[in-house]
Amino acid sequence: MTVPREIAQPTGDKTAAQFSVSPSTFQSPISSSSFMASALAHRSAPKQLKPFNTEDVKILLLENVNQTGQDILRAQGYQVEFLKTSLPEDQLIEKIKDVHVIGIRSKTKLTANVLREAKNLLVIGCFCIGTNQVDLDYAAQHGIAVFNSPFANSRSVAELVIAEIITLARQLGDRSNEMHRGTWNKVSAKCWEIRGKTLGIVGYGHIGSQLSVLAEAMGMTVIYYDVVTLMAIGTARQVPTLEDLLAEADFVTLHVPETPETKNMISNDQFEKMKTGSYLINASRGTVVDIPALIKASRSGKIAGAALDVFPNEPAANGDYFTNDLNQWGEDLRGLNNIILTPHIGGSTEEAQRAIGVEVADALVRYINQGVTTGSVNVPEVTMRSLTLDEPNHARVIYIHRNVPGVLRKVNEILAEHNVDKQISDSKGDLAYLMADVSDVKQDDIKNIRDSLDSLSSRILTRILY
Predict the structure, then answer these.
(1) CA within 20 to 30 Å of 199's CA: 52, 169, 311, 440, which one?
(2) Region (Disordered) spans which residues (predicted)?
(3) CA–CA separation, 285 and 202 (whole Å)
(4) How far apart are CA 386 and CA 370, in angstroms?
(5) Tens of pLDDT along 23-58?
(6) DSSP secondary structure string, 206-239?
(7) What is the SS3 assignment for 41?
(8) Within a 10 A sphere around the Cβ of 449, how many other Cβ atoms?
(9) Which listed residue (5, 344, 396, 401) is catalytic?
(10) What pLDDT, on a 0 to 100 scale, did the predictor assign at position 40?
């Protein structure tokens, strides 16, 4: 039995590439006592749809993607290139030209200008929560799926925020800096326990809700604001407006995405509404807080301290880059008392990075080998049960296309000469994703199906796994 292969036609005028794989056999016990069980196992075992000679799948991993992700991808036999750093745009464009998969974290910027050169790219893996570093619309319109890890580092970020709350309340950063300079300054003025204080969480998602549980366990009262109504965990309470939260909270922590609506959502007006002597923590996105307004509120004594893990502009590599050349207010911010500044390390724990490596790498393997898009942030989420080992002459047709009237009719006319065992289609805005398993197909049939689908005006990308 041969392992399935793929014919994939990238967008543009490039000729479709055909890839083959080495034969593979299925071995099972044949003793009479286990014959029936092994036969059933044979029939129900999933058929591995490996789309290329595995060594022909080129993967580029940047920014020190965790070893767990590397191991999963290499175990498939893919050709994996690993770099510890991000790349400048000119080097990235050169590297991305021939790869089928790219894995990044938060520093690499996959703009339209970069993606335009990625003629063979099928999928992007963001080994982090955010995807704002990728031009998602351009990727979708060119049939490039994008996956991320929205949950895996939630605990790590929540624990960091708890640590920062205590550090701010006790002014530990200032005392530590003083001791490093040789100054003994034992004080209790304006140092507080966090028990009995009110924590205001802006954004009650995966991180915010975990933080809520930890804060209550520390004896804090928790309130939260979100743009949607969400069920509270424990004794937390949702408030109707951001202003209500700011007026009540002793500590305000932000856990929102980067959108036009959240840009500078905490600025001069919001600082005025906060309690005098309160604290601000931002471990979400750097554009959410108006930093000059924060500096003003800190200098005036309106807020007693702040912790920032994210910034509007962040360096592409480690080094002495957090200066006014990067952000014009950098030195002013660094000169403030009781301000914790950390280099975007909210999810930087061994546990989180291992979990992210597994989650994103598994999603990439499912997409490359089976065409399953569950968890994608920019294309419709489509899944279909695996083919089994008793379906040797089947092919999985994947047709990514513009969502215009009449496409399904034309696709089904092309597939009509074959038995369609199962089919699913979904759309997301102007983009649609169709997957169908057809039986009793031969090499010539597969070529004809591919050529016919490629000729449709709605086509973005055709993939056939077999």
Answers:
(1) 311
(2) 1-20
(3) 13
(4) 8
(5) 222 223 333 333 334 444 444 566 665 555 556 899
(6) HHHHHHHHHHHHTT-EEEEE-SS--PPSTT-EE-
(7) helix
(8) 24
(9) 344
(10) 41
User: Identity (one letter) of the amino acid at 175?
Assistant: R
Q: Cα angle at 363 between 357 and 366, to 5 degrees?
A: 135
Residue with the two structure tokens 């807020």: 303
- Other Cβ atoms within 10 Å of 163 Cβ, number: 13
Amino acid occupying residue 183: T
Enclosing H/E stretch for 173: helix 172-180
Cβ atoms of residues 220 and 196 within 8 Å: yes
Measured at the CA of 356, the angle between CA 322 and CA 320, to 5 degrees, comes to: 10
Structure letter (DSSP) for residue 388 = B
Residue 52, judged by CB atoms within 10 A of its CB (0-12, 13-18, 19+), counts as: buried
344 catalytic, yes or no? yes
DSSP 35: H
Angle at CA 378, nearest 5°, toward 19 and 141? 65
Q: In this structure, are strands 101-104 and 123-126 parallel, antiparallel, or unpaired?
A: parallel
Is the CB of residue 80 less than 8 Å from the CB of residue 70? yes
Catalytic residue, from 159, 248, 314, 381: name it. Answer: 314
Which residue carries 């083959």 as its tokens?
Answer: 20
Active site residue 74: no
For 323-392, list the strands marked E by DSSP: 339-341
Structure tokens at 35: 């014959």
All domains in the chain, ordered by first residue: 50-153+349-385 (3.40.50.720), 154-341 (3.40.50.720)
Neighbours of 362 (CB within 10 A): 16
CB 231 within 8 A of CB 254: no
Residues of the chain with pLDDT > 70, as a percent, come to 88
3-state class of 194 per DSSP?
coil
393 pairs with which residues across the strands? none
Instruction: Examine the residue annotation and report whether 314 is marked as an active-site residue of this protein.
Output: yes
Query: What SS3 state is found at 367?
Result: helix
pLDDT digits (tens, 9 = 90+) for 59-87: 999 999 999 999 999 999 999 999 999 99
Give the global pTM: 0.81
